[in-house]
């Protein structure tokens, strides 16, 4: 057999295989579609023959608050597209959503009550989740707003201090500006006290040369700063 004849034979064999595969695939799909159509017609016939009883069962399940079962039974016959059936399914779904929402609210409320007052961020997050479930709840809105104000204030205060050693950024800058030899500066500790007039008392302890003295000593600077951390006055420098 010549080469071109062998090539032609292989080509024809390949075409036969592909054709056979396509034929069986199409036959399988058609058979599957026919089976699905048969099952659909069986369900439609079954529903039409027992419509009143099926609707009564679904309605009874809703009355007994067995919403999952009601939805399952309605879904079984949903292919009928019966208006009364679909209406009952929607009713069961709505009631189930209400139940699930109430459970989530109860769980979040319990978690909220168990959360210490000091955990501001967690309480804020819980109120945010509650508002997602009940957007118009005035109490949740009020509590979330108050907590947000506290969190923003805490963030504003924290941003005034360095993350490395806790030094107050603006007061430290002021201290270094006043020092004769800033290279001797070494921060030791910083504390702060909130005042009643929206100011803060900052107490910074550091080592460094004071004035023209050549000796490195421990210094304690007490200053008043505003809410943004700007130094208002130096109370003492010891």
- Class inferred from helices and paired strands: alpha+beta
Uncertain stretches of 5 or more adjacent residues: none
Report the C-alpha radius of gyration, rounded.
Answer: 38 Å
Number of strands: 4
Order of SSEs: HHHHHHHEEEE
Helicity, as a percent range: 55-70%
Provide the β-strand percentage band. 15-25%
In round numbers, the mean pLDDT is 86
Shape: elongated
Number of separate helices: 7
Oligomer: single chain
Strand order of the largest sheet: 1-2-3-4
| Biggest β-sheet strands, sense, barrel | 4 strands, antiparallel
State the end-to-end CA separation. Answer: 111 Å
What descriptive keywords fit this protein?
238 residues; alpha+beta; four-stranded antiparallel beta sheet; 7 helices
Task: Explain what this protein looks like in three dimensions.
Helices cover 62% and strands 15% of the residues. The chain is built from seven helices and four strands. A four-stranded antiparallel sheet has the order 1-2-3-4. Strand 2 (200-209) and strand 3 form a beta hairpin. Helix 2 runs antiparallel to helix 3, helix 3 (67-76) runs antiparallel to helix 4 (83-114) and helix 4 runs antiparallel to helix 5. It is elongated. 14% of the residues are buried. The mean pLDDT is 86.
Strands, helices and their partners?
Blueprint: H1 3-49, H2 51-63, H3 67-76, H4 83-114, H5 120-133, H6 138-158, H7 169-178, E1 186-194, E2 200-209, E3 216-225, E4 231-237
Helix pairs in contact: 2-3, 2-4, 3-4, 4-5, 5-6
What can be said about this structure in brief?
This protein has 238 residues and is of the alpha+beta class.
């Amino acid at each position: 057999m010549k080469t071109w004849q062998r090539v032609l034979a292989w080509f024809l064999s390949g075409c036969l295989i592909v054709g056979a595969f396509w034929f069986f695939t199409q036959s399988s799909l058609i058979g599957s579609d026919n089976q699905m159509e048969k099952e659909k017609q069986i369900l439609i016939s079954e529903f039409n023959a027992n419509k009143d009883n099926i609707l009564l069962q679904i309605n009874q399940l809703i009355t007994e608050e067995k919403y999952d079962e009601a939805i399952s039974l309605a879904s079984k016959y949903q292919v009928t597209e019966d208006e009364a059936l679909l209406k009952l399914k929607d009713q069961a779904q709505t009631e189930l959503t209400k139940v699930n929402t109430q459970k989530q609210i109860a769980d979040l409320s319990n978690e909220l009550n168990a959360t210490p007052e000091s955990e501001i961020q967690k309480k804020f997050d819980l109120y945010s989740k509650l508002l997602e479930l009940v957007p118009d709840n005035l109490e949740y809105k009020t509590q979330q707003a108050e907590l947000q104000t506290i969190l923003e204030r805490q963030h504003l205060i924290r941003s005034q201090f360095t993350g490395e050693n806790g030094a107050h950024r603006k007061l430290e800058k002021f201290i270094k500006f006043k020092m004769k030899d800033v290279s001797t500066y070494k921060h030791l500790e910083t504390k702060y006290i909130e005042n009643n007039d929206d100011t803060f008392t900052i107490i910074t302890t550091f080592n460094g040369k004071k004035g023209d003295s050549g000796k490195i000593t421990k210094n304690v600077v007490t200053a008043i700063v505003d809410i943004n951390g700007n130094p208002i006055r130096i109370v003492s420098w010891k």
